[in-house]
Every structure is written in structure tokens, then in C-alpha cells.
Design goal:
This is NAD(P)-dependent oxidoreductase. It is built from 14 helices and 9 strands. The chain is of the alpha/beta class and about 300 residues long. It folds into 2 domains: about 10-170, NAD(P)-binding Rossmann-like Domain (Rossmann fold, 3-Layer(aba) Sandwich), CATH 3.40.50; about 175-295, N-(1-d-carboxylethyl)-l-norvaline Dehydrogenase, domain 2 (Orthogonal Bundle), CATH 1.10.1040.10. The strands form 2 sheets. It has a 6-stranded parallel sheet with strand order 3-2-1-4-5-6. Helix 4 links the parallel strand 4 (about 65-70) and strand 5. The chain is elongated and about 65 Å long. The N and C termini lie far apart (about 55 Å).
Length: about 300
């Protein structure tokens, strides 16, 4: 396949917090950029910086060497790719399509097969690293799909990520992302319970965190999410309702692969409870608020 290198045109569909930041880094890397979103207002900063606007996914894909998308869930991806004004109606055969969304692995594999029937290569590449990682261009990209497509689009990946791994055939990236989200939720649950225990025992939670960071319990969750838990600062970096969606996907992946997964089941129930307690719009670390409440602690 022909390598996608600057100044080739890249289309990016989905101008949420993550998508807009990734698209900005693609443009900074020297690619010509076309953007599309349900809300043009979210794309205005990029348009002002020199990106072209496309009203539909079909229009965005027309003339693009690579099409990227980052949208909320499986039905959104299907609509962008195969809808009435979808990517398949505008993309030329041989185009590489990168789906940065987090969706069901089985759906990703099915979408890739449908795209291949039209001569298009679909790579699933859910990401980890949060909004700051998207801004800094240091995301972890977990990629599934054909090696030829991955190699052709390598410079696009390099524009948005730091750790970029091709894991296997279509859907493999989504399986790895489910593992990532499970580990985060399980670690947040453990951190929330530990901090609640410390508070009830009369310990200073910040000193407790400091001590834990010096030992084998040190982790990204203890460094970042535990600090939010202690300070009660739950302005969303990653909303609890999105984490609930992701852990539901993890439950599905565990079921599809026949894995005994009690930690996944518990994490899923806890995130359902977090959202149902009215915390869905807060950061996923607000899991601590629920644990503290159920432990009889008042913030």
C-alpha cells in the first residue's frame, strides 16, 4: 500500500475532546486536514487554523488518503462508516480508515470485513492516555487490523501517539482496550476502598497516598486518580458514564472469550452504581464518592 505521508490529506471525523486534539496534532505533523463533526462549532478552532470543513463523513473521505474517526459508541461508528452519507460512499479503494473509538471487538472485526469488500482497510485503534495525552500527542494506540494498512498509516499514528502496537487482526485493539479499562477500574475500586479505610481509621489520606507511592502499590491510578479522590475534584477528564460503557464492553469481551472474570463483573456493577447514583457526568474517579458514601463517610 502507498504510505500516507505529509502533505497527504487526512480526514478526521468526530471533534470531541479527544478527536479535536488528535486532529490538531495530525495537522501539526504536516498533513492536509479535513474535519467533520455533528457540531461544526467544535471544529471551528481547527478550521480557523487551516483545516477544511466537510459537512458529512462522505465528503470528508472524498480525496483523503487516510480517514480517522473518534466517536462515542458502536452505533456511531457504524453510522459514520456505512450510513447514507458514510465514509464508504466517499473513500477511494485502498484508503486506510483508522477508528480511534472504543467499541465492541466483535463489531470492529465485522466492520473491517465489510470495509474490505469495498477495497478499504479498517484499523481499530482505541487509545489510552486521556485528554492530556491527546493534546501532547503521547497516546497509547492499541491497533488491530492488516499489517499493510498499519505500515501505510504509520506516520499518522506517530502524529498522535507514543506507544503504538499492532496486536493482531481486526478487533484485537478493542480487546486490548477492554483489558486496559478493566485494570483501571479494578485499581480505582481498590484505591477507593483503601482510602476510605484509612480515613475511617483516622489516617491522613494524603500522607497515606504518599506512603503507598513509595512502595509496590505505586501506579498511575495512585498517582492521579487517588489524588482526585482525596481532593474531591471530579471535574471530568473521562466521564463515569463513558467508563461504564467501556467496562460493559469488557464484560462482553470476557464472555465472548469464555474467561472467568469476577473482577470485571464487580467493576461493571460498581460503574453502573456510580452512574445510577447521579455521578455519570463526573470523572470516573468519582467511584470513590460512592464508596465513601456507602462507608458512612461525609465529604
Amino acid at each position: 500500500m502507498t504510505p500516507v505521508i505529509p502533505p497527504a490529506r487526512v480526514a478526521f471525523i468526530g471533534m470531541g475532546v479527544m478527536g479535536a486534539a488528535m486532529a490538531a496534532n495530525i495537522m501539526k505533523a504536516g498533513f492536509a486536514l479535513t474535519v467533520s463533526s455533528r457540531s461544526r462549532a467544535k471544529a471551528e478552532p481547527l478550521i480557523a487554523a487551516g483545516a477544511d470543513w466537510a459537512p458529512t463523513a462522505q465528503d470528508a473521505a472524498d480525496g483523503a488518503a487516510c480517514v480517522c474517526l473518534c466517536v462515542p459508541d458502536t452505533p456511531d461508528v457504524e453510522a459514520v462508516l456505512f450510513g447514507e452519507d458514510g465514509v464508504i460512499h466517499g473513500a477511494a479503494p485502498g484508503t486506510v480508515v483508522i477508528d480511534f473509538s472504543t467499541i465492541a471487538a466483535s463489531a470492529s472485526a465485522g466492520f473491517a470485513a465489510r470495509m474490505a469488500e469495498r477495497g478499504l482497510v479498517l484499523l481499530d485503534s482505541p487509545v489510552s492516555g486521556g485528554p492530556q495525552g491527546a493534546i501532547d500527542g503521547t497516546l497509547t494506540c492499541m491497533v488491530g487490523g492488516a499489517d499493510a494498512g498499519f505500515s501505510a498509516a504509520r506516520q499518522v499514528f506517530d502524529a498522535v501517539g507514543k506507544t503504538i502496537t499492532l496486536l493482531g487482526p481486526a478487533g484485537s485493539g478493542q480487546v486490548c482496550k477492554s483489558a486496559n479499562q478493566l485494570i483501571i477500574v479494578a485499581a480505582m475500586q481498590a484505591a477507593a476502598e483503601a482510602l476510605a479505610m484509612g480515613r475511617k481509621a483516622g489516617l491522613d489520606p494524603m500522607l497515606m497516598r504518599q506512603a503507598l507511592l513509595g512502595g509496590s502499590a505505586r501506579s498511575f491510578v495512585m498517582e492521579n486518580h487517588a489524588k482526585r479522590m482525596i481532593e474531591g475534584t471530579f471535574k471530568p477528564g473521562f466521564r463515569a458514564e463513558l467508563m461504564r460503557k467501556d467496562i460493559r464492553l469488557a464484560v462482553g469481551a470476557m464472555r465472548d472469550n469464555g474467561v472467568f472474570a469476577p473482577a470485571t463483573a464487580l467493576g461493571a456493577q460498581m460503574m453502573e452504581a456510580v452512574v445510577n447514583s447521579g455521578r455519570g457526568g463526573l470523572d470516573a474517579a468519582s467511584l470513590y464518592g460512592l464508596v465513601a458514601e456507602l462507608s458512612g463517610l461525609k465529604d
